[in-house]
């Protein structure tokens, strides 16, 4: 939807009106046939139609383009009243700067910043409302340090609040201890599994070394037996030589 034409000061050129809502263009787009529309208006129109609402020429979202620069400049120079005029704001400014003004306008209706409060007040009256808002919070005047809402003053009990806070802290501490315990147990289980795997690997290596040692001993015994046989053969040969 466009800007309400009743807000504008002086004459507004027909070419600066949206062809759909007939208000002054807001965030304008232009079709190839040069008819202009508010972005929201033409997008909504093209959901159910495929032509220009003025001359029925076929158009598509991809064919829409920004407004011509000279038309954009004419649009931005238009003068209009602040939307908070009914609340007392008398500001008149250009369309180009109206959004910036209205974001800061003292007559704008804004929500109370206190959680739970649904009241909306003018920006200029916000401080006064916050001073009396029943949802405003403050620290307990009795020194317990608890933050209370003004509406809870009569129900506030320092001892009960501190007891509740203590129970919450105790519960939180128990939860943290349990979490730390589970994490430690998980780490110990992981280390235990790692040690078991390591032990299994070392045991296999030891068994392999024993097997190699056994083969080496067998080879040594075979060599020693061969050496004895060789010596006996030499002695026999020496004896036969002497006899000859």
From TrEMBL:
<feature type="coiled-coil region">
    <location>
        <begin position="192"/>
        <end position="243"/>
    </location>
</feature>
<keyword id="KW-0436">Ligase</keyword>
<keyword id="KW-0175">Coiled coil</keyword>
<dbReference type="InterPro" id="IPR001841">
    <property type="entry name" value="Znf_RING"/>
</dbReference>
<dbReference type="Pfam" id="PF02176">
    <property type="entry name" value="zf-TRAF"/>
</dbReference>
<feature type="domain" description="RING-type">
    <location>
        <begin position="18"/>
        <end position="56"/>
    </location>
</feature>
<keyword id="KW-0863">Zinc-finger</keyword>
<dbReference type="InterPro" id="IPR017907">
    <property type="entry name" value="Znf_RING_CS"/>
</dbReference>
<feature type="zinc finger region" description="TRAF-type">
    <location>
        <begin position="101"/>
        <end position="144"/>
    </location>
</feature>
<dbReference type="GO" id="GO:0016874">
    <property type="term" value="F:ligase activity"/>
</dbReference>
<dbReference type="InterPro" id="IPR013083">
    <property type="entry name" value="Znf_RING/FYVE/PHD"/>
</dbReference>
<keyword id="KW-0862">Zinc</keyword>
<dbReference type="Pfam" id="PF13923">
    <property type="entry name" value="zf-C3HC4_2"/>
</dbReference>
<keyword id="KW-0479">Metal-binding</keyword>
<feature type="domain" description="TRAF-type">
    <location>
        <begin position="101"/>
        <end position="144"/>
    </location>
</feature>
<dbReference type="GO" id="GO:0008270">
    <property type="term" value="F:zinc ion binding"/>
</dbReference>
<dbReference type="InterPro" id="IPR001293">
    <property type="entry name" value="Znf_TRAF"/>
</dbReference>
<dbReference type="GO" id="GO:0043122">
    <property type="term" value="P:regulation of canonical NF-kappaB signal transduction"/>
</dbReference>
<protein>
    <submittedName>
        <fullName>RNF41 ligase</fullName>
    </submittedName>
</protein>
